[in-house]
Write a structure and sequence with these properties.
The complex is a heterodimer of chains A (about 325) and B (about 260). Chain A folds into two domains: about 180 residues, HUPs (Rossmann fold, 3-Layer(aba) Sandwich); about 120 residues, 3-Layer(aba) Sandwich (Rossmann fold), CATH 3.40.50. The relative contact order of chain A is 0.11. In chain A, helix 3 packs across helix 4. In chain A, the strands form three sheets. In chain A, strands 5-9-4-1-2-3-10 form a seven-stranded parallel sheet. Chain A has a five-stranded parallel sheet with strand order 13-12-14-15-16. With about 325 residues, chain A is of the alpha/beta class. The mean pLDDT of chain A is about 95. Chain B has one domain: Rossmann fold (3-Layer(aba) Sandwich). Chain B is about 30% helix and about 30% strand. Chain B is built from six helices and 16 strands. In chain B, helix 2 crosses helix 5 and helix 3 packs across helix 4. Chain B is globular and about 70 Å long. The relative contact order of chain B is 0.17. The mean pLDDT of chain B is about 95. The chains are: A alpha/beta (about 325), B alpha/beta (about 260). Chains A and B meet through helix 4, strand 5, strand 7, strand 8 and strand 11 of A and helix 3, helix 4, strand 9, strand 11 and strand 12 of B.
Chain lengths: ~325, ~260
Amino acid sequence: MSNGRKILVIGELDQKGGYTSLSGELLGGARKLADELGGSVDVLLVASGNQDWKNLCRGADRVFVIENPNVTIFDIDTITTVAEELCKKNSPELCLMGQTDLGRDVAPRLAARLDVGLCMDCTEVKYENDKNCFVQTRPVYGGKAMAIFASSLGRLQIDTIRPKTMPPLDRQEKRSGERVTIADDKIKIQGNVKLINCEKNREDGIRLEDAKIIVAGGGGLGDAKGFEILGELARVLNAAVGATRVPVDEKWVPHHMEIGQTGKIVSPDLYIAVGISGAAQHITGILGSGKIVAINKDPDANIFRVSDFGLVADYKDALPILVEKLKGKAA
Amino acid sequence: MEIIVCIKPVLDPDLPPMKFSIDAQKNCVIPPEGMPAVMNPYDALAVEAALQIKEKQKGKVTVITLGSGEDVQRKALAMGADEAVIVKVEGLQEFDGPAKASLLSCAIKKIGSYDLVICGRQAADWDLGVTGSMTAEYLGIPVLTRAKKIEITDGKLRIERITANGNETYETVLPALVTVSSEMGKPRIPSGWGIINATKKSIISWSQSDLGDNHRKVLGRNPLLKLYASSNERKCELIAGKNTEEAAGRLADLIANMTGK
């Protein structure tokens, strides 16, 4: 029996029309917190068209939907306004979003409009019963440190959540909420910002976020050609290929391959870091890896402090040997 | 074109991890010896973006900093900014994004007329990524975030950015606020002449009370309970061998075992 305390999740859908994995994690995390609070979970979605509502309503108590086909996930102003109205009407204790392009834009603007607390890129949100507050943990200084911030209940707290930190919704969860369409007159389509064009990424191969094995290259590769050599290793291991920020900034590889604080958060079983120095902003993105193997010609590189196995060698010498031996084993 | 750029100093993000340490009592980073603070790298890109616009169309670039940061302002002036404003603040926590945005918006209003405000997408210390968006909200102007390219034609602002969705292009009207990301490029290094000229440019200093009553009180809705160093260390086993070939061979065996080959 809910005591009226609410948690609002702003969810996002993938191309198949189901929740993104991060949204599934938010829903799971929100459900767990709501149960601790004795409260309920509301979700806000932008979803016009046919959806699997049975799937989308599972785990929530109410799912608010912006069904107006003129509103897309790019309409940050509109989404923020709808969220603002929902928060004013329902007074949730907590509003959770993913640390995604949408979350990065909506969270601060919503916090400004409602004049409430805000924590970005949280790796943990806990309810402390005895202190009647939430505590949020988030990485700072590029991941070199962690900071814990408090927020009192009784006033909304907005948190964006890092991928792969909250547990997804329990498979046993039977609760299914009601779907509530947001009336068109409540959706003020704000005119100031127009999306002129969106060219989708051509992300070839295995998605980094889902990959079980990742081979990644850093500034130590020296040039774009280094990624061709890396690609050979990736092929033989059936691995996804990633990069740190340096190769992206140098334009050796496209942005969608970036792993780290301003790129993707990954958690493969095996992560092979080649020519990567081990800067905090990158390491923060691979902490969930099962095993980390580093190949770097600098024995003092920081990467060796955060890896399970290391090879001090020039990748140009080491990688062809690795590839040959591994090909031999696969045969 | 009147452009305002918000800049601040941060602990050098390239600080070797061994030099990073925290004062557990005060919950703050101990300033490392011999490594002065630097301009937040994204803010340096913001200055660069402003200067590029100034070069294309006539204009003036003013940089604003809250709290301490004269060195960083001198650097911006040396890069080519025209004027600098420092706002002395009291009791402002560096991690209090909402309070900083509120103060910045009041300082910008006090500067008066502007066409464009440019900020870095986030600061390399507290990594909030909120100041730009919140400042825009408090100013009541549109905001476009994480831009890699800025174009202004006929009072219209267009930005391009790269996101998880792909390459996006947005358009809005001026005045507006833009935050910039590393895809924008590299900031210029001040020339010798730039550095000399910088000493002749003015740094205007305001106190918090000069901003008037409109600014919200410094709120601190999210007190910092604890700051501690991350412990991401793993016990690394170095693969040995009498030469690279042998060691690499051993590594191949290890990887084959791990991946079930």
